[in-house]
Amino acid sequence: MSTASQDKSVLTPAAFLIRGLAAGLVAGLLSFVVAFAFGEPYVEDAIALEESAAAQAPAEEHPADHADEEEAGTEISRDNQKSWGLLTGTLAVGTALGGLVSLAVAAVVGRLGNLSARGSTALVALLGFIAVALVPFMKYPATPPAVGSGETIGGRTASYFALQLVSVLAGSCSPTSCASASTAGPPRRSRPVATSSSSG
User: Nearest CA to 51 among 78, 70, 27?
Assistant: First the structure.
């Protein structure tokens, strides 16, 4: 059996999906470790700053705050938020993104010129990172609690997701155009045919 036939039998969409989900699960676990070790201390400092500012607010504002807290219902403690809640979120998002990337790679692998399966995966993952995370972050960077106005959070959230949608659509055109270009191929030049003028 040739190497090409072995690659075709192994690199099926199902195989890509399983590997993508596994890679996303591992990436989600690593993201939890990084977020818990380096991100949560800053979130705790921001929450402490927000609580201190709320404590210094005029006394007449506190009854409305307590009424809002009673209507909010059951609250999740910070210990659960920064441990099991954070772990669940990073694992779910990482696994979902890994599955989406694997399906995108399965759709374009073999159509990106001479790139191998690993090269195609790296290219799609890089374009996905730029479109989904980097471009929206450059325009609307994440802010911790106690930063920004609560009155504009709805508009800022809508603007963020609108920019993310435009960025994803623009990024999806890159592998698609590369795939169509590689499928069409460069125009072939006609070679001159050598003729012999021997007299018989």
Answer: 78
- pTM beyond cutoff 0.70: no
Q: How far apart are CA 122 and CA 101, in angstroms?
A: 10
| 108/23 Cα distance (integer angstroms) | 19
Q: Based on the number of CB atoms within 10 Å of its own CB, is 173 exposed (0-12), middle (13-18) or buried (19 or more)?
A: exposed
List average pLDDT for each run of 10 residues in the chain, which is 200 residues long: 47 88 96 93 83 70 52 74 92 95 89 84 91 90 69 85 91 63 46 46
- Domain range list for the chain: 8-59+78-181
Measure CA of the first residue to CA of the last residue in the chain; give whole Å: 50
Q: How many residues does the chain have?
A: 200
- Exposure string over 37-64, b if 16+ CB within 10 A, otherwise e: eebeeebeeeeeeeeeeeeeeeeeeeee
H or E element, residue 26: helix 13-34
